[in-house]
Write a structure and sequence with these properties.
The complex is a heterodimer of chains A (259) and B (279).
Chain A: E1 6-15, E2 18-28, E3 33-37, H1 44-51, E4 59-64, E5 67-68, H2 71-78, E6 81-84, H3 98-103, H4 107-110, H5 118-131, H6 146-159, E7 164-168, H7 176-193, E8 196-201, E9 213-218, E10 221-226, H8 228-231, H9 234-241, H10 251-256
Parallel strand pairs in A: 3-8, 3-9, 6-7, 7-8
Antiparallel strand pairs in A: 1-2, 1-4, 4-5, 9-10
Chain B: H1 9-34, H2 39-58, H3 62-83, H4 88-109, H5 115-122, H6 130-149, H7 151-159, H8 161-166, H9 171-193, H10 198-212, H11 216-241, H12 245-263
The chains are: A alpha/beta (259), B mainly alpha (279).
Chain lengths: 259, 279
């Protein structure tokens, strides 16, 4: 049971001439909620892509759900990993509805040729209700607002029935109210489904208060890690971001206030 | 209007060729229009043309060369974009320029009359042989079967390729398969529709259907209907007005596009009315 769900050893990832991840080692336990923060270009997204096999290691190794992450296993692993990225620009004319987009979540697990059964269809309806966009299910996906689109992306990941959730700045570029709804949803899902969750953000205001461990990344390395209470220190954050830092009356201060 | 034209063998072949090419090209068109890879039709058509010219120069059946070069181009475009970290449009442009160069090279190397070679440019649906028809029918059947069997994967990849990859769908394989099916369709339709006009039959019916619905199944069905109607109406126009068949087909498909554009519900803007005060 104590066997980590995610284990990364000395991972190095390069994009052309640039080293995006420099010798990162990490272990994440089953059911843990890990926040990953750091400035832009710190390697946060790259770390997530190492876990779901979309990033190519030039050195080191990664094991997820007990399997080594390699070309052979990556497709299989991704079926068990829900991935929610930032809001992307979607063509408003795309011929796919919200319901169909959410249904895509189960396609990997179903495999080629097999079609979704009534069980999958019911699951999609249930998840659409859960994330609060059932009334939008017939709309073209390109017609949703940023917050609604992110809810659809979370619903799609939920339909996968993932063992691991990766959130890559899911609240970026959306309004504060939608951000709050998404964060509440992320926390609800983590509690309900007891998944292992990694949540990346560069905006500390959008760090879920449920976070159990905080990883601070800088220049492709894990700079520090520990409890949110220990990491959310004015001095530490000022060093991480290279600017003076003040803790505002946000979710951040509520996390620190848990002490 | 007389139905006497149907008694001619060449016209029966042409009608069946229009059905097969209309369905196959339009379905492939839906894929490329949705993925914003419209230029791929032009690129693969030129590859098929270059291949057919090479075959003619070497004394083989043009279909063999057309198939080889169009499938090779389709197979190269995807990996070139992925491994070279290029925009797919750039990758298509690179392959297109090479194929155009090869076409001119082979045309220059050919001796004697180049009528047969130039016929490939315009195509002629009225001279389709039983052999051409068989190839077209097989290709159309393969394309339809692929859509039926792999509908959910195709929909996921053409609408959200990165998401499809992230949920464990073999998205890269499906994407390359889509490009490959485009190569197959263009090569099989080259002699019937012509290298210059084939991409119009790929683009126009799909773009027309794109104007009318947000539902992929309806879009595929509408595109296929528009493709077949373009071929048949163009064929009728060609017969009765004595106009070139390829040009008539393309002009018909353009008229359908104009009508779809005019009637598109996607362009409708809800009428705005100021809110009335309570009294």
């Amino acid at each position: 049971m104590d066997e980590p769900v995610i284990r990364i050893e000395d991972a190095v990832v390069c994009y052309r001439e640039e080293v995006a991840l420099q010798g990162v080692s990490l272990e994440v336990k089953q059911g843990e909620f890990v926040g990953i923060i750091g400035p832009n270009g710190a390697g946060k997204t790259t770390l997530l892509t190492v876990i779901n096999g979309l990033g190519k290691l030039v050195h080191g190794q990664a094991w997820v759900l007990g399997m080594p992450v390699n070309k052979k296993n990556a497709g299989l692993l991704r079926k068990h990993i829900g991935y929610v990225a930032q809001v992307e620009n979607i063509d408003p004319r795309l011929p796919i509805s919200v319901r169909e987009t959410v249904m895509v979540g189960c396609y990997g697990r179903l495999g080629l040729v097999r079609r979704p059964t009534r069980v999958e269809q019911k699951n999609v309806e249930r998840v659409l209700e859960l994330v609060g966009i059932a009334h939008l299910s017939g709309r073209p996906i390109g017609h949703l607002s940023g917050g609604e689109y992110q809810k659809a992306a979370i619903a799609r990941a939920l339909v996968q029935r993932p063992k691991i959730f990766l959130f890559d700045e899911p609240t970026a570029s959306i309004d504060p109210q939608a951000q709050r709804e998404i964060l509440n949803l992320v926390q609800l899902i983590h509690r309900e489904y007891a998944t292992t969750t990694l949540f990346v953000t560069h905006d500390l205001d959008t760090l879920p208060s449920i976070c159990q461990r905080l990883i601070l990344m800088k220049e492709g390395k894990i700079w520090r890690q520990g409890s949110p209470e220990a990491m959310l220190d004015r001095e530490v954050l000022s060093q991480l971001y290279g600017v003076p830092f003040a803790l505002e009356n946000t979710i951040l201060s509520s996390m620190v206030g848990r002490r | 209007m007389s139905l006497s034209i149907l008694q001619y063998q060449f016209m029966q072949n042409a009608i069946l060729a229009g059905l097969c090419a209309g369905v196959a090209c339009s379905i492939v068109g839906v894929f490329v229009v949705t993925m914003h890879l419209s230029f791929i039709g032009v690129c693969i058509a030129h590859a098929a043309f270059a291949g057919a010219l090479l075959s003619l120069w070497l004394g083989f059946n043009p279909l063999i060369g057309a198939l080889i070069l169009s499938l090779t181009s389709a197979a190269v475009i995807g990996p070139l974009a992925d491994r070279g970290e290029l925009n797919p449009d750039t990758s298509i442009g690179i392959v297109f320029s090479l194929m155009l160069g090869l076409a001119f090279l082979f045309l220059g190397l050919m001796s004697g009359s180049r009528t047969e070679a130039l016929n490939l440019f315009w195509g002629n649906i009225l001279t389709v042989t039983r052999g051409d028809l068989t190839v077209l029918a097989v290709v159309a059947a393969v394309i339809v079967a692929l859509v039926v069997v792999l509908y959910k994967e195709i929909q996921a990849v053409i609408c959200h390729r990165q998401v499809a990859l992230a949920v464990g769908i073999p998205a890269t394989l499906v994407f390359y398969g889509i490009l490959f099916s485009a190569g197959l369709t263009v090569a099989a339709s080259l002699q019937t529709i012509g290298g210059l006009l084939i991409y119009c039959l790929i683009l126009n019916p799909a773009a027309s259907a794109y104007q009318l619905t947000y539902n992929l199944k309806k879009m595929l069905a509408l595109a296929a209907i528009f493709g077949v109607v373009s071929c048949w109406a163009g064929l009728a126009a060609s017969y009765f007005l004595d106009t070139p068949s390829g040009a008539s087909i393309v002009i018909t498909s353009s008229i359908i596009f104009a009508l779809a554009m005019a009637l598109s519900p996607k362009r409708k803007v809800r009428k705005w009315q100021p809110v009335q005060s309570g009294r």
